[in-house]
Amino acid sequence: MKKIVFILIFNLLVFNGWSQISTKELPISFNRELFDGSNMEQILNEKVLVEKKTSKTKSKVVKKILQPYKYGDVLSVCLTPSNSGRWHTLQNGDKIWQLCISSPGAKSINLTYDKFWIPEKGKLFIFTPDKKHWMGAFTSKNNKGKKENPGGFASGVLMSDEIILEYYQPHNVNDSAIISISEVVYGNNDLSSFFLGYGLSCSNQVNINCPEGTNWQDEKNAVACILHDGYVCTGALVNNTDNDCQPLLLTANHCLNEQDAVTSPNLNNWIFYWNYETQGCDISTLVTQIPSTVGATILANNSDTDFALLYLTEDPKDLSNYIPYYLGWDCTNSATSGSVCIHHPKGDSKKIAYANYPLNTNSELMWRVKFMQTQNGYGIPEEGSSGAPLLNWNHRVIGQLSSGNPNCDNPSNSTFFFGKFGVSWNGNATSNSKRRLCDWLDPHQTGATALDGKYPDQPIVESGIIGPNIICDSAIYYVHGVTNNQTVTWTRTNQQYICIFQTDYPYINQCMIKRSNNTPYWCTLTATVYEEGSIVSQYTKDILVKYDFEGHYNQESCTYNGVTHPAISSKSLNLHSAQFVHMGCQVHVTSDCFKRMNVGHRGAIPSYFNYDGESGVDFILPLSAGGAPFYITVSSEEGCYDLELLFFAISANGNLSNNQLVLTPVSHGYQIHIVRDEPIQDSHIKEKKSKSFNSYYPIEVYNIRNGKNILKDQIIENSYIIDTLHWEKGVYIIRVVIEGEVYTNKIVVE
User: Fold this and answer.
1) CA 711, 716, 718: angle at the middle one, nearest 5?
2) How far apart are CA 136 and CA 114, in angstroms?
3) Separation CA 597–CA 585 (nearest Å)
């Protein structure tokens, strides 16, 4: 749920988290060794003023109850390297063109280019005068056409009322760049001072990374915030029956501003922002990387169901810091028992809205949806949400947002309309491929009526029960591949074990299992799929219901280095402090929680380690491991018991040479003194031995509570003071290595 207080931490070094496809390198002028800083003052003094009063009215958006969110005004300009800015020639013959554009009072600036072409090795950068934010370099990879017929381009939003363009041309590049700026988008005063509409939507909106979004973490990676001509919309990538993850994006027809698949399909100035979301449930911190792509072509659009299908010019798969997801879809037009909408209201970070009841059909063309209050708020679409996908409980698209009447003060009175995907499939019975979806999403006419979503290079998932193999506390299960006209019944074995087992929960055709005691057990979950009263398929899945971690350890007696160690009888494992064993003796650790887990070790190196694959671990710690932390690591894909069991092996100092580690309490600590009492045969040997005493002996100190290394140093001249004044209370292990022999001892800090 949104919070009013914003806690935003910025790195004052040069940084840009909203990167387009670019080389992500610093502008050339940031290197003062190459570029005289006085030139920057000249550029700022020669800035081009682009004021809001010069705004040229753009084509109006088609009137809707719910419109794209207007974040800025489009100001027409004609700026090129030949009519504005300043050229500089560096000592090595390289050239730099710089232009400062100033729009006083703007919260943000972004640019549209009617012609854009960069030669090989050329580089274009854009940055704020304080050099805190930048983007680029844009290179020949961003070209949308050839030099003879260059395409358009758009550069992303920078939160400033002044920006500087910098084009770098190496001395060995003969072709001139074509950089023709046709529009400056002036960000209005109601924008966030941070990014777009961040924090400007209804205060009751639910962020995608709240608990409500837990089951929709794949689908969120398909959704983009769209900027164009001063407006914001939402769109989402969709899969096709070739499962080849083509960059196909579904949005609303009314976002096109009267552009059309037949007459004007090029959307070269559209910018698509990905991963624009908060890190957690509240709005205090955005993710650090919000990459973007530029440009699209309209493949098909239809005003009847208000859909538009775009082919993105820059493929989001090519982004280095983002893995897109491609939504599945259902074109059967079957009413669903509930739905979810993922959207960017008012250009804000990604939100989620729930409708946990059957959809109503407003007409043959539209779904009528009323959203509901959930744990962290009352998510509803707003301006800027236009084109957002509507997903059924099977995680498939069934429509895109067309219109509505958002009411932040009383969201229960808000009603929204989504164009039906099933009607858009055949374009409301048209034969024109530019007016329907089927030609593009089922290119080989397979006749598929439903398709699941996927990531690039992700294998196609066969039908079956989807959910974890191990239940830590609770888990949700559903059947992959179920259509809207099918129902699922659930049963489980071992019903004598007490647990919470709910069917049709949290949504229709799903089930939840929640452990309610501390007894682990296996059960087989069975899902039976019905259609029109007949069984069409049945699936099973074996599940282990876990419990709170517990276990025991014991140690065998052994004789090691001449010292006999007694056995250690069975003790309970302590997750919050260390277990102590003797070096050289075999230790047995048992826990039912090891079953079907990933069990390993780290820290001190054992001379023997074995995990039997079930509930037992055996290990032996050698002399070299004395006083050093040894961990048994336990983890699983489900994350039930991602923990570490800490052990320390205590050395038997009496079995070593005639060296003694003497500890003497002093003020705020301990004094360590190494006593060497070896027999001396003659003065020659005595001199040799005395020199060896003046060695450097490594010393380490560990906290037994967590194995943390508190001190790492060397003892010089056989004496050392340990200052414990600022240590936390507890027990610590001292480890000293003298000529390959390990000495250990315990100290207590009170």
Assistant:
1) 105
2) 19
3) 26
Decide if 9 is inside a domain: no
Question: In the chain, how many domains are there?
Answer: 5
Rounded CA-CA distance 288/277 in Å is 10
Residue (of 461, 421, 438) closest to 306 by Cα position? 421
| Mean pLDDT per 10-residue interval, the chain, length 750 residues | 31 43 82 60 70 50 60 90 90 91 89 94 92 87 90 88 93 93 83 64 91 92 93 95 94 93 92 91 75 93 96 90 93 84 93 82 84 92 94 93 91 92 92 94 87 84 76 80 83 75 81 74 87 90 77 92 88 90 94 80 93 91 90 73 84 54 86 67 36 68 91 87 89 86 86
696/633 same-domain check: no
CATH number at residue 507: 2.60.40
pTM of structure: 0.60
Coil vs helix vs strand at 433: helix
Which residue from 377, 31, 61 is spatially nearest to 201, judged by alpha carbons?
Answer: 377
Is 324 in the same domain as 383? yes
Dist. CA 337–CA 361, nearest whole Å: 12
The C-alpha atoms of residue 390 and residue 342 are separated, in whole angstroms, by 7
With respect to residue 334, please indicate whether it lies within any of the assigned structural domains.
yes
**Residue 504 maps to a domain:** yes
Report how far residue 290's alpha carbon sits from residue 278's, in angstroms, rounded to the nearest whole number: 11
- Examine the domain organization and report whether 222 and 366 are in the same domain: yes
For 184, phi then psi, to 5°, come to: -110, 120
Task: Decide: 244 and 203 in contact? Cβ < 8 Å.
Answer: no
Q: Encoding tokens for residue 666?
A: 């002093």
Query: How far is residue 138's CA from residue 27's CA, in Å, rounded to a whole number?
Result: 11
Alpha helices in 56-130 (DSSP H): none
Q: Which residue segment(s) compose the domain that 358 sits in?
A: 211-451
Cα–Cα distance, 561 to 62 (Å, whole number) = 88
Q: Structure tokens of 612?
A: 């039997």
Domain-terminating residue out of 545, 565, 591: 545
Distance of CA 20 to the CA centre of its chain: 17
* Interatomic CA distance for residues 277 and 653, integer angstroms: 58
Residue 168 and residue 48 share a domain: yes
